[in-house]
Amino acid sequence: QVQLVESGGGLVQAGGSLRLSCAASGHPFSRYVMGWFRQAPGKEREFVAAISWTGGLTNYADSVKGRFTISRDNAKNTVYLQMNSLKPEDTAVYYCAADAAVIARTRAYEYDYWGQGTQVTVSS
């Protein structure tokens, strides 16, 4: 079992930045691919970014490439999502997830464990 707790969400103006954190406990963190997903009201949960065990491989949704950066610190059992140049369309609940795989996958159903989510609101 892996427990995930997100933090760092909030209200920010368009063009601003936020850094989300996801603290993990339970099964060895370093053996999981970690991902970030988001869900806006009335929309399906969508992939944002994922990172491999060692952090050497990352994968991003086209909508966030060049603006968001995923990283992890295995010593702290934490994964981060640095979000820059935020847009109103980035408004959503952001979830971190853990996947017992070896590649950074993009589909929500492939992930095994989920956090409770943190709200990000970007005002125009």
Verbal overview:
This protein is mainly β and 124 residues long. The protein has no helices and eleven strands. Strands 2, 4, 5, 6, 9, 10 and 11 form a seven-stranded mixed β-sheet that branches. Strands 1-3-8-7 form a four-stranded antiparallel β-sheet, with no helix packed on it. β4 and β5 form a beta hairpin. The relative contact order is 0.32. The model has no long low-confidence stretch (mean pLDDT 95).
Q: Descriptors for this entry?
A:
mainly beta, 51% strand, 4-stranded antiparallel beta sheet, 7-stranded mixed beta sheet, 124 residues, 11 strands
Sequence stretches where pLDDT stays below 50 over 5 or more residues: none
Outline type: globular
Q: Order of helices and strands, N to C?
A: EEEEEEEEEEE
Question: How many β-strand stretches?
Answer: 11
What is the count of DSSP helices, taking H or I runs of 4+ residues? 0
User: Biggest sheet: strands, sense, closure?
Assistant: 7 strands, mixed
Structural class: mainly beta
Helix content: under 10%
Strand content: over 45%
Cα distance spanning the termini: 40 Å
Taking all Cα atoms into account, the compactness measure Rg is 13 Å
Kindly report the average pLDDT value. 95
